[in-house]
Design brief:
222 residues, 35% helix, single chain, 3 helices, alpha+beta, 3-stranded mixed beta sheet, 10 strands, 2 domains, 27% strand, Helix Hairpins
Length: 222
């Protein structure tokens, strides 16, 4: 994966694409800021107050205004076009899931539901755990995200994944983690007085470790 600037290490299959777009927009923005700042500095020095100099009215340039408006619009359209496929892959399409979960936000926890040994939701062997989201590495994870009360934000910076959990809606989310480890899942939407303490943990494990943890979880329910 590509690491840029201050971003945490990307651990998902689409992290490099998100990083590319972020870095591209950052450098375009930085170039515009430098251009404007340098121009302002030059004007401050060149047109600074001097004894005997009087302020004069300057006529605006329609051609110049049209130029920077067209250039700005062209850049925005270009960014929209080159980012369309990346966002469509993350938000709309994506590969078929290999493991499935249900994740629900509530003040002030994340509830993760595992389908049980029968791999079906809505049956007696479903298991719900608070704030522990265990997944196998290199597997396509799909989960239905919802909220029990207010808007919450499911955010895993290392995955480059951020999705609001909205009351009354179920949103399909996917990712494929490429590195094992433990990663924070903070809530990215101000959701009440306990917002700062609403934090889960994404645990990415090898298939063997994941299977063992899942077996122990299901054994506890029996």
């Amino acid at each position: 994966m590509i690491d840029h600037l201050w971003l945490p290490q990307g651990i998902s299959t689409y992290a490099s694409g998100v990083d590319f777009l972020f870095t591209l927009i950052f450098w375009i923005t930085l170039a515009a800021w430098v251009l404007v700042t340098v121009t302002m500095a030059v004007f401050l020095v060149r047109y600074r107050h001097k004894p005997g100099r009087k302020a004069a009215y300057i006529q605006g340039s329609r051609g110049l205004e049209a130029f920077w408006t067209i250039v700005t619009a062209a850049i925005l359209i270009w960014l929209a076009l080159i980012s369309r496929s990346s966002w469509a892959n993350i938000k709309e399409n994506g590969p078929p899931g290999q493991v499935f979960y249900k994740v629900r936000g509530q003040q002030f926890n994340w509830e993760i539901t595992y389908p049980g040994p029968d791999d079906k939701f809505g049956t007696a062997d479903d298991v719900t755990v608070e704030n522990e989201f265990h997944v196998p590495v290199n597997k396509v994870v799909r989960f239905d995200l919802s909220s029990r009360d207010v808007i919450h934000g499911f955010f895993v910076p290392w995955l480059r994944l951020k999705q609001d959990a909205v009351p009354g809606r179920t949103i399909s989310v996917w990712f494929e983690a490429t590195r094992t480890g433990e990663y924070e899942i903070p809530c990215s939407q101000l959701c009440g007085f306990g917002h700062s303490g609403m934090q889960g943990t994404l645990v990415v494990q090898s298939q063997k470790a994941y299977d063992g943890w899942l077996a122990r979880l299901y054994a506890q329910k029996r």
